[in-house]
Amino acid sequence: MNFKRLGTIGAIAVAGTILLSSCAANEGGTTEPTTGPALSGTIDGAGASSQGSAQEAWIAAFQTANPDLTINYDPSGSGAGREAFIAGGVAFAGTDSSLKQEEIDGGFAGCTPDTGYIQVPAYISPIAVIFNVEGVDKLNLDAVTLAKIFKGDITTWDDAAIVALNKDAKLPSAPITAVHRSDDSGTTKNFADYLFQNAPDVWTEKPADPFPYATGEAAQGTSGVVDAVTNGTNTIGYADASKAGDLGTAAIQVGTEFVNYSAEAAAKVVDESPAGDTNNGTTDLSIKINRTTTDATHYPLVLVSYIVTCTEFVDAEVAPLVKGYITYITSQDGQAEAAASAGSAPLSAALSDKVATALEAIK
Description:
Layout: H1 9-15, E1 40-47, H2 52-65, E2 68-74, H3 78-87, E3 92-95, H4 101-106, E4 117-132, E5 140-141, H5 143-151, H6 160-165, E6 177-181, H7 186-198, E7 217-219, H8 221-231, E8 235-240, E9 248-249, E10 251-254, E11 257-259, H9 263-271, E12 302-310, H10 318-329, H11 332-342, H12 349-359
Parallel strand pairs: 1-2, 1-3, 5-10, 6-7, 6-8
Antiparallel strand pairs: 3-12, 4-8, 4-9, 4-12, 10-11
């Protein structure tokens, strides 16, 4: 099966970058999933770098169970992944930003004309506000202060607004280097959505995949932001929590309390959020996160990362491979694998049932 004939944009992106592929099957620490008849062939995916650690684990486990199957995933970013899928260059996309209506209306080159699409949650994770500030181990930030830092309105660590939230911290009199994504990123859109909803007088730009302000320092991908914060001086950034590592992570204000991220708190806010704008209740299960909750058991700075694919493919042989893989990663076993490998929040039983029903539409 050669996806290159379906389109060039995604195929070039997949061929020209480091992929999470069959080599992952040789890594330890995975649990072999229960599958039906063994699958064989090759499928390519691309998109959200937030899914990177989870995709490594999923690929290793699923290829172990299906040794004649090769799965390639290019963590090129949500925007690049959607573009590649739209052009027909990959069989599925991972995206932290749900499809826009205009993307849906434009159709997908790899899908059979006049058939539907699938958009299901596969990976739920907190977004961590990561920092590397000399002499500071703990940091509290409310949405207004965080928005001012990333917009460039607050430029030093001993600014009165930060001091007021961190009275016991020894904040340095030093410039802030705020690091954001340089590429089109669903993580950026989720981060911006949190700030837009909670600090609209400061963060006046509507949420979108590109970072909206010409401030701070830009870095490519999740790994680029983490590297810049780690190797910089008095830095702050945002990244999928699975990549926070040993960096400091800020507690954000929810109601009257400051809340640290956790998979449990992320799952709670997702379960109690309404349907997204394109959600059709069947094959599109997009979610609109409740960012303004005051419930301190919730962590509203969270991303829901989706898998987008076809219900019917131009290349019919692709369907069972994609269906088998996505069914696995959204299953109880797949979600447990991601939780163990990436610290993500498993889909709730109710949401998992809806996803399983949606995937039955793949023919």
